[in-house]
Amino acid sequence: MASFPVINMENLNGEERETTMEIIKDACENWGFFELVNHGISHELMDTVEKLTKEHYRKCMEQRFKELVASKALEGVQSEINDMDWESTFFLRHLPVSNMSEIPDLDDDYRKVMKEFVEGLEKLAEQVLDLLCENLGLEKGYLKNAFYGSKGPTFGTKVSNYPPCPKPDLIKGLRAHTDAGGLILLFQDDKVSGLQLLKDDQWIDVPPMRHSIVINLGDQLEVITNGKYKSVMHRVIAQTDGTRMSIASFYNPGSDAVIYPAPTLVEKETEDEKNQVYPKFVFEDYMKLYAGLKFQAKEPRFEAMKTMESNVNPSPIATV
Ligand SMILES: [Fe+2]
Question: For this UniProt entry, which segments traverse the membrane (predicted)?
Fold first, then answer.
């Protein structure tokens, strides 16, 4: 089996650009994931983010998680748990308006460092979206514009820790799902593994790699590319020892952005075969649906949006 795609972004500036773009294309078509190195975000900054995130977990989150585990008697479970995950999380929103100053328990240093880090990630997300445009034959800026809506993209971060779990076979760190949004950028622990993606019906590890950023594609990119690129199921297996840090930033459409397949990517219909066309919808409506169906397959979500679309725009009724 081909190995997990790793992109050295420095190679985009030299002779190896073409080969590198091919690896990205193959990753988008066949993996839904790839890992970036030499992505321009300083290693020193990443080290500080990691140090402060781990300190914050120990200081503010760990005890709360232990109490939750005790209150639900999760240590002693005997059968598979399907309605919760073995994870400790909090969320930060950056765009359209930051809520970082309202999040309790964050000290000034941590806020400052996270702000600098996510500004780098935002630039990186836009750069990666343009690489995707280039591979798809879309004009530069097409995907950024498609996400824009009236207030620009939604950009937020889920900061997670996956503490050691005594029964990783019975309770997942995070149950299998595809991501609803656009482009996801992940800074994951380089020592404790656990993230897996589903490829050809097999769970494959996303390898921890120091100072890398893992990219994956959400459902909206599948819709805009009309299925040329796919969002891929992934999950987290908690480990019996070691706490895994995961900082996932979501570069998503604005809530009122209208999402639909890029016209140039919709194949022309042939006489006897109607090609599948993904639905057109407002991103916020998709998110409302996703909230209740995150851990289910994406196809029924696309179908539901298609049904809503035909309710909104009924076919003309023949009159006599
Ligand atoms: Fe995810």
Answer: none
pLDDT-derived band at 96, boundaries 50, 70, 90? very high
201 C-alpha vs ligand 1 centroid, how far in Å?
18
Q: How far is the CA of 316 from the centre of ligand 1 (A)?
A: 40
> What mean pLDDT value characterizes the chain?
93
Distance between Cα 245 and ligand 1 center (Å): 14
Q: Where are the domains of the chain?
A: 6-312
Alpha-carbon Rg for the chain in angstroms: 20
In sequence order, what are the residues at sequence separation of 6 or more whose Cβ sits closer than 8 angstroms to the Cβ of residue 62? 88, 161, 163
Q: Say what the pTM is.
A: 0.94
Per-residue confidence (pLDDT) for residue 1, from 0 to 100: 62
> Which of 250, 197, 173 has its CA nearest to residue 27?
197
Least confident of 5-14, 167-176, 237-246, 262-271: 262-271
Distance in Å, CA 234 to ligand 1 centroid: 6
Q: Provide the b/e sequence for 66-95 (b: ≥16 CB within 10 Å).
A: eeebeeeebeeeeeeeeeebbbbebebbbb
Distance 143 CA to ligand 1 centre (A): 20
- Residue 58 alpha carbon to ligand 1 centre in Å: 24
Task: Write a three-state SS string for 238-302.
Answer: CCCCCCEEEEEEEEECCCCCEECCCHHHCCCCCCCCCCCCCCCEEHHHHHHHHHHHCCCCCHHHH
- The CATH number given to 6-312 is 2.60.120.330
Distance 298 CA to ligand 1 centre (A): 13
- Model confidence at 268: pLDDT above 90: no
